[in-house]
Specification:
It is a single chain. The chain has about 475 residues and is mainly alpha-helical. About 70% of the residues lie in helices and about 0% in strands. The protein contains 21 helices and two strands. It has a two-stranded antiparallel ribbon with strand order 1-2. Helix 6 crosses helix 21, helix 12 crosses helix 15 and helix 12 runs parallel beside helix 16. The radius of gyration is 24 Å and the shape is globular. The chain starts with a helix and ends with a helix.
């Protein structure tokens, strides 16, 4: 009886391409147990979100609500970044502060499910499904790049990882979907490099374009993916150039309608979103005022600022203390208001963000040493801000070195490192900033223990063979 059940389950797994006929019984059992784990997580997640668990809606819900009310992609004046606070206002301000896909997705659900509990459940349900799908994609991706054991470890660890379930079941933001789209994008880059064609290039470019409209930090994946395809075979042939070009063109075609909307509304080229200037201003001159003697946060005119011993402590306090974080945001706005040029009150959203970015650039050029210290500490904070995530980051960095000769692993490593670049300039204020790249980091990190165990096993086999002789 047990043998029949085993054969039946194995046949299903083979048909779904989770395993192959040649895989060991142990691997087939491991895959089966992992799938059972996903079912358990789905069941427990449904119980949690059915109980009416608290949902943190952030600015994405505000945008969705504005869309449903007929105000378009805009913030109410009282909720609009860079425009200060107010108690009550009927004025709505067009924005490009967030990517369009997730707010419009929420707006659709908000129209469909007018009862708040039903709406909350539906959004959280889709987040949960996206997380479980990410686990599946991680398994396939890890198996393609390394091996099945690496896939099992990475795919099992991801949905159990501290903070991930909370993010999927409580937060209304695109982080979980972004993790899924990054995983799919990485898989498609490798899939396209294995057998280049215009069709595969169009698929990859389309996914990258849509992913960028969901989560803007994916945009650098577009030129990097084209570069990987271009150099994946030597000598470089015509098909390399054609496929690389079609990836970029297709992605730009997908993104361009939103870019055109932004240009029409703001009079400036904004491919997907603005807002980097505001968060960079808080993360640089304002944060620097907490541990230096300079008047970077207008302390000479606006008064004293809370203090930290160094940049590392300042980042940690700013990240964990919501009151001090809010104080920094308020000081950033007040300081910019004081430094603003004539006519600033008529600036639109993008123009204000550009001014924030200009003041940030001036700080970096005037205080390069302070900036360098903060940039280093921001990356360290991103990688090692808890012991658990720091352990995975440490294994990821080891894997980046030991697996770099593997072309497929090299693609994952470069794409992961490219994701870190913005955090040289901004603080990872929330875990949702880091999560989208974690599926890929988990794959690379999981390879290290698998490699270590396989090397030990080879040594054991070798020593056993010598003893027999």
């Amino acid at each position: 009886m047990l043998g029949k059940i085993h054969n039946y389950v194995a046949a299903i797994l083979i048909r779904l391409k989770f395993v192959s006929k040649e895989d060991s019984p142990l691997l087939k059992i491991s895959v089966f147990l992992w799938l059972i784990l996903l079912i358990i997580i789905l069941a427990s997640g449904l119980i949690n979100i059915s109980s009416g668990s608290k949902a943190f809606k952030y600015e994405y819900f505000a945008l969705a609500d504005s869309i449903v009310k007929g105000h378009g992609f805009s913030f109410n004046e009282c909720e609009s970044w860079g425009f200060g606070g107010c108690r009550d206002s009927d004025k709505y301000i067009p924005t490009a502060h967030e990517e369009p896909v997730y707010p419009y997705f929420m707006a659709f659900l908000l129209k469909t499910f007018v009862i708040e509990n039903e709406f909350n459940f539906t959004v959280q349900f889709f987040n949960l499904i996206a997380l479980l799908l990410t686990s599946v994609v991680v398994y396939y991706l890890a198996r393609k790049v390394f091996n099945a054991p690496t896939g099992i470890i990475a795919a099992s660890l991801l949905p159990l990882w501290p903070g991930v379930r909370y993010l999927s079941e409580h937060d209304f933001n695109p982080a979980i979907f972004a993790g899924l789209l990054i995983s799919i994008s990485c898989y498609l880059v490798i899939w396209c490099s294995e057998n280049m064609s215009l069709r595969r290039g169009i698929v990859l470019g389309g996914v990258l374009g849509f992913s960028s409209l969901t989560y803007a930090p994916i945009i650098p994946f577009i030129p990097l993916s084209a570069l990987f395809i271009l150099v994946s075979r030597t000598p470089i042939r015509t098909i390399n150039w054609k496929t690389a070009l079609i990836i970029v063109v297709t992605a730009l075609v997908v993104i361009s309608p939103w870019s055109i909307r932004n240009f029409i509304v703001f009079g400036h080229l904004v491919p997907v979103k603005s807002g980097f200037g505001i968060i960079a201003h808080v993360s640089n001159p304002i944060l620097a005022a907490t541990f230096t003697s300079g008047s970077h946060a207008c302390t000479d005119t606006l008064g004293p600022f809370w203090k930290a011993r160094n940049a590392k402590e300042a980042i940690e306090i700013g990240r964990t203390d919501s009151r001090k974080k809010a104080f920094m945001l308020k000081r950033s706005f007040d300081c910019i208001q004081q430094q603003a040029p004539e006519g600033y009150e008529q600036y639109n959203y993008v123009e204000r963000d550009k001014f924030y970015l200009r003041k940030t650039r001036e700080f970096i050029l005037s205080e390069p040493k302070t900036f360098a210290i903060m940039a280093y500490d921001r990356i360290i904070s991103f990688l090692f801000f808890t012991w658990a995530k720091g352990t995975v980051s440490f294994l990821f960095l080891i894997s980046a070195v030991v697996s770099f000769r593997n072309p497929k692993a090299r693609i994952l490593t470069v794409l992961s490192l490219s994701y870190l670049i913005p955090y040289l300039f901004i603080v990872m204020w929330f875990y949702r900033y880091r999560y989208p790249i974690e599926p890929v980091i988990h794959i690379l990190a999981a390879y290290v223990p698998v490699l270590f165990i396989s090397k030990l096993y080879m040594l054991y086999r070798s020593s056993s063979g010598k003893r027999k002789r």
